[in-house]
Structure formats: structure tokens, C-alpha cells
Amino acid sequence: MSSATLYGVASLGYLIALIAYSAHFAIQRDRARRIATVVAAAAFLVQTLGLAARWYEAGLHEVAAKQSAEGVVLQGAAYLATLGSHPPWSNLYEIMVFMSWGIVLVFLIADVKLRLRGAGILAIGVALLAFGIASLSLDATVQPLVPALRSYWLHFHVFSASIGYAAGLIGAIASLLYLASAGVNAHKVAFGVQLVMAIAIVLLGRGATLLTTLGYSARLLATAPGGELVAAQAVAPNGHLAPVYGAMPGVGPLLLANLLLAIAALVLHWRAWQVGGGAAQRSARLASIASTALFTTTIALILALDLIGVAGKAAAWSSSQIQPGPPHRFGLASNAWDLGLFLLVWIGGLYSAVQLLMPEALRVRLPEAAVLDRLAHRAVLVAFTFVGVLIVTGAVWAHYAWGRYWGWDPKETGSLVIWFVYAAYLHARITHGLTGAPSAVIAILGFFVVLAGFLGVNLGWFSGGLHSYGAG
Amino acid sequence: MKIVDAIWRLFVSLKLTALLLALLMGGAFVGMFIDQTAGQEQHLAALEGRELASWLFTACELYDVFGSWWFVLLTLSLSLNLIACTLERLPRLWRDVFRGARDLDDEHLTALGHCARLHGASYDRAAAACRAVLQATAGRVTAFQRADSLLLFAQRQRSARFASVVVHLSLLIILFGHTGDQALGEDGTLAIPEGEASRTMFQRGPAGLTRRRQLDFTVRCDDFRYQTFAGGRPKDYESDLVVLDGEREVASKTIRVNDPLDYRGYKLYQSSYQRIPGEEQVHLLAGARGSELREHRLAIGERVEVAPATSVVPIEVVEQLGDLGQALRLQLVKPDGSVETLTLLQRLPELDARMRQGELEFRYLGAEPRFATVLSVGRSPLAGLVFAGFALLMLGTAIALLLSHCRYWIRVRRLDDGQAEILVAGSAKRHQPAFAGQFGALVRRLEAACGDPGAGAARGDR
Q1: For A151, nearest residue in chain B (alpha carbons)
Q2: By the CB < 8 Å criterion, does A420 face chain B?
Q3: What is the pLDDT of residues B124-137, one digit of tens each?
Q4: Which CATH superfamily is domain B101-157+404-455 in?
Q5: A405 Cβ under 8 Å from any chain B Cβ
Q6: What chain A residue is nearest to B392 in terms of C-alpha separation?
Q7: 8 A C-beta contact, residue B78 and residue B17
């Protein structure tokens, strides 16, 4: 079977596991949890087979390329060496698939050891999100392996990245659940969630555009008469071709209203937590849930517009400066990464809403606070170790490939910052004795730094660097 | 001495560590957002007219964040902080691990994380059995004999306590090595056209400006080869290099990506390549329109006669002419001395004959580019030290992840009737759930060995 088929089956399995985990959360039957774990484990095996299949498929490409280049038929050891020369972690699509694999692996280990009721929704949800972003928005074709990646260091390097970042994610999830399980004031949590939501809206709505033009910008895509999809480009003031963005109708005002509502909610939560009182708590709860509901509506609208947007016509865009020219039809589609991050924030919003409405019901459905606290610590320790391995293998490899072991390349700097975050967490815990809620907050905030360090560079939020082949 | 004391207190404080880590992270993000490959001038041009921003940019050396005075100051403070913390804590840690409290009274023992009480039918038998079981579990046993009781102590994985010391030491070694390499090492690029030799290395100097440096050896590139995949992405490239000391050939190697040449501490890496514009070999067909055309291979600027008193000179290869692909600009010098510039498209070779309708016809078949190999030249004399630091770092984190210092105490007390009361206690620095399991197993083994299953009362794992 092809890797694409296996990946499809695996993601379907994760979806079923996600539903089963949610069902277990709702009805509290242990059978649902067992089914979920078994399905997730089976899907994980299928994904592992998919990775192997992808390795083989990429290897066949390499063999064909080498045979046609050298005019020989490869046999024996040479054939096998070439077949194995292209591991399935050489571009951003493959990296994202591999990341989701790592997340499920780390989660399953923790789940088998600790019976993590409720955590499966978040872990499998995020893995599915990574998988989805990879298959929906990234180029999945097997591309030849560029010379710089032809090295054994690649294996250690990427494997430790996958495990390290996955463990960091599991640590953040355990920390988030800890807050509810330990009975931390729901208004504190909601304050944080609404703050993150407000920041996400400003950042991902491409701040300036949202605030000045009330528009949410999406990429302009062009559909060729044959159905092939390409990003539309236009000449920017600096003379280079740049992608064209357009405002998605209706989304901008919704997002702006959402921003105001989120700010109002976080002020009210602040008051409810500082001053207390029934009326303050009720109004904060109302604002927060309204904000999350509006966010849900907005995301649904963006998704709906994305689905019909490409097929629809946007005559206004058929101007001569935009390439490719007129036979193409234009439509808007949001950046899948923006959507992915919106969905992450949305998951946080739902979690906070459930905690606000029924804190007790949520608390009894989650693993014990002590278990979660320990899991978070352990996960961060694993993340710290593997990010350390990631940096060291990267440095040694860079020494042999580029002539220097450290050059403050954005990707190198990003991973160092991530390592610092975990170091700060461990120091706060071990030396300051900050366990429980304070360390949980550090782990959750740290996750955003991880996101910035890991994805920010690949997505070009920062200035370019030597890891450009990781870009999507 | 008050000031020295205050400074010492400042540097042993973990609050300072937290602050420094936060500031370093902030600085790193600044360095990621601002393009560090562009020089000062480029950045200042972009900030033109904004006095304050320009001043801040220059004062904080934001074109070179990671080499700026404040970033170096932060790194230096963090190293001092690390050294001070280690010096402050190491003696205490050492005492605790090697001469730590082993002879504890019952009050201390019951206050430890894990504790159980057992009963033995005979004091002598219980004492011997406990010793044997403890030795099998945790190795060497230290015994403290009292008038009516015996205290046994054993411990495992003491080295786990030094994991953080190892990690911090490794970080200091890495920082020291890297700083030394910055000062003593070199890093630059060397571009050598095929068939030529060069000793001029380009380095990034102060303010991000390019600086030239003459190496004390010369590198000649005899040949550069590169292959592309069908899609045009580079597949592999390699250069035949010869290192010359004066006229003498001292080293030679074919280098490729990930396989450098070593010469006297320098490493020459295949990092990239360039086409040299203006040095292509142009492949051209020329002749009277409709007749048999003659084939020419010309360098840019090389004149050739294509008809009596009529000559052509290729002047430029344009990689991409609009959407039309590669093109050649060709000067046609006619018998009357007038000059016409033609643009020939590689993708549409017949276009010239069809469109221009001249007496002569030209077909541009393509150009063989001349390459310059681009080497990255590095010398990191302290790389070995840094790599040793890396190894130590891996060792330290592995110890921290996997090992845990576990200590066990067993007090066997003789009761008046010759029976024994046994108090078992244990503590671990890490991995509490795993230790709870191990401790439970130890207690069960002791129970079995002391041979009085009925009386194993009052066990309380906490």
C-alpha cells in the first residue's frame, strides 16, 4: 500500500480515537477509553507502516535518479544503500507528519503508564491537527533529497526534534489539565485563555490589517482551467514577486468584535478573581463564553469561506499586475498555519468554557492533580534532554557540513531558546520548589515559545536562515 | 568586604539566573527577528529619517545581536552566575552525598518519604537477614551497632546527585571553547572560479561589513561539477581542490557537501557555487537564411565572422527574459560598420528567421556556464574542547533523566523477649513512583526473609 493510503487510514483512526476519548469524557465508561487507546495504538502502527512505506517510495525515487544519472543498474548493497538514503523527514510535510507520530508515541507511553483520562482529547487532537495541516497545506510529493541533508546526522537530529517537541507538548497539555484538576480558580485560567485569544486574533489577523482595515487577510489563490491550484503573486514595491492577500468578507468585523469581547472578558475575569462576588463571576463567565462562542462562529465562517472561496470568483482580482493571468479564476483561502493556530486557541477556549460552567464535573473527569504534575515534570525533563540532543547533533553536523558548529542561525537560536525555557522550568521546580500551578503556567507559556521557535523559523516569521529546506 | 559579599550574594542567587535566562531569550528573539546577515549600513538605510531608532540600533549593535556588548555581557553574567552557584552548592552537596547523615534516629527515619515497620521472630536472624537483603538490593551496607539495636544504611546511584554539576560544567566548557573559537578561529568564504586559484577569503567583519583576508596558503579549483535532478534542484556538487603552499602542492581532495578537506586545522567545505556571469560558452548556429547553418562555440565578447565582412559578438546571456526563458543578446556588426543588437531565445530558435527576416539567420542553442565553487573556510581550534563539552552535557542530562540517588535505612531493635522490631525507611531524590515500587519490593523481601508473615503490621507507605 502507498504511504498516502496508510496515512489516510491512520488519520481516520486518530479521528475515531479522538471521538472515543471525547465519548469517554462525556459518559465516563471505561470501555470507551480502552477502545480509544486501542484504536489510537492501531492507528499509530499504521502510521509507522506509512513512514516505512514513504521511506521505501522515496528510496525508489533515489534509485531511479541514480540509475538514470550513472547509467547503471544498482544491485545488492549499493541498491539497498540508495534505497535507504532518503528518510521520510526531509521537508516540512514529512516533518509535520513525523511530529504527529512523536506526539502520539509520547502520549501512548504516558497513557499506558498513567491511565490519563481526558488527556487523550488534547493529545490526539493536536496530533490530528499537525497531520491535517501537513496533508492539507503542504507539498506531499516526494522531492529529491538536497545534498546538505545527505548525512547520518539527519536521523538523530530529526528524531530528537520529534520526541523533544512532542514531550514538550505533552508537558504543556498535562500542565493545562493540572490547572483544572487541582481546582485552580477557573477565572484565572479563563483570564489566560482570553488573553491568548486576543493575542492570537491580533497576530494571526495580521494585526495591522485587522485594526486599520477591519479585514482578515487570506491568501489569493488562482485556479487554472485544468483545476490546478497556485498562489497568486504580484510585484511588490521592492521589485520581487510576493503573495497577494485579500480581505475575506465578513470575517474582519467578527474578529474585531471578538477581540473587544475577549478583552472585556479578561478584564471581567481579572475582577472576578481579584474581587470575587457572584455578580462579577456571572458576568465574567457570560463574557468569556460569548467570546469563545463568537470565536467558534468565526472559525466556522473562515472554514466555510475557505471551502467555497477557491471555487468562487473574485473579479476584482483579475487585474493585470497579478500573476498568473486571466484564464485563472481567483479565490481566497486562509493560511492553513493561521487556521491551525486558531484551532489550538479554540481548543483552549472550549476547555476554559467547560471549566467555567462545571468545574467539579471537569475535575472528577481528569486524572489526579498529582499524577498530572508528575507527568508534566517528567515530560519536560524528556523534552529538555531531547532538545539538548537536537542542539548537540545539529552543532556537530553543522561543524562537518558548514564549517562551524554554532552560527546563531535563527533555527539554532530558536532551539536554544526552547532549551532555555525547559531549563527555566526545571530550575523553578527543583531549586525553587515551585511545583503545581506556578510550574504549570511556566510549561504552558513555554509551549508558545516552543511554537515560535519551531514553526516561526520554518514559516518565515523571522529572517531567513540555513534551514530554508524545511520551509513549506 | 561588604561589597564583595553583596556581589557574591547577587551571583549565587537563582533569581539572577531566571532574570538572565529571560533576558537572553528576549535577546535571542530580537536576533531572530532582525536579519543578522545584513550589515549595519543596510539596516540604517531602512531606518533613514528615524533618528531615535537609528541611534538605538547602533548603540545596541542590533545588526550583530549575538556579538553585541549587551548580549556578551549577559552571557558573561550567566557564566559567573553558574560558577558562583556551583561553588556555593558543591561543598554542601559533596558533604551530603559522601558524609551525609546516615546514622539517623527513629524520628528522622519516620519523617522520610517512605517508611515501614516489620516484626522479626528472632533479633539475630532478623539482623543477618536484613543485612543480606539490603546488600542484594543496594550494594555496600554500612552498619552502626548500638547496645540494643543495629542501624543499616545503603545507597544507590550516588552519581545522580552530580548530574546538574556535570551539566553546568559542560555549559561552561562549551561557552569557554566557543568564546575562544570566536577570538582565535576564523570563518569565511572563498569563491574560486574553475581552473583558477585564490587565497582571498571574505569574512564578516565589524558592523556586518565584508572584510578580506589573505590566507597563508592558496587553493586552486581544478574542476567543479554539479548535477541536478529533473526538477532543477541541485543533486550533488563537488570540486577538485589543490592546496598550494607557494608553488608546492601540499594537499588535494575532491570535496563535496558534507565531506570537507582538512588542511592545517582549516576545514574547506563545499558550501555553494556561483555561475560567473559573462563567462559562458555560447552555442550558436549562424548562416544565410534558409541555407545550411554553421555551428559556433563562443565566449562572451569573442568576435567571429559569420559572412564576408559581417561578424557577431555575444554580449550577454539573460537567464530569464520575462516569461520567455533564457536569451542571448548578440551584436551584429554589418559590412557598413553599423551595429544591430539581436535578442535570441533559446526556447524559440526559429523566431529570429521568422520575425526579423534578415539575410542572416541565427539560432541560439544554449550556453555552458562557467562556475565558481564557493567554499566555506573555517578554523575552530577549540572545537575539540567544545565537543568534549557536548559529550559531558549529554552525559549529565542522561544521568539526570535516568538515575536517582536512593538511600535506605533499616533499624533492627532487640525487644525484651529476644524478638526484633524492624523499621525500614527510604528516600529518593527523583522518580518517586518508581522508588515507591522498589521500596515496596524491598519491604516484601525483608518480610519474607525475617520469616514472620503474620506480624507485618502497621505498614504505612507515605
Answers
A1: B258
A2: yes
A3: 888 888 888 888 88
A4: Sirohaem synthase, central domain (3.30.160.110)
A5: yes
A6: A392
A7: yes
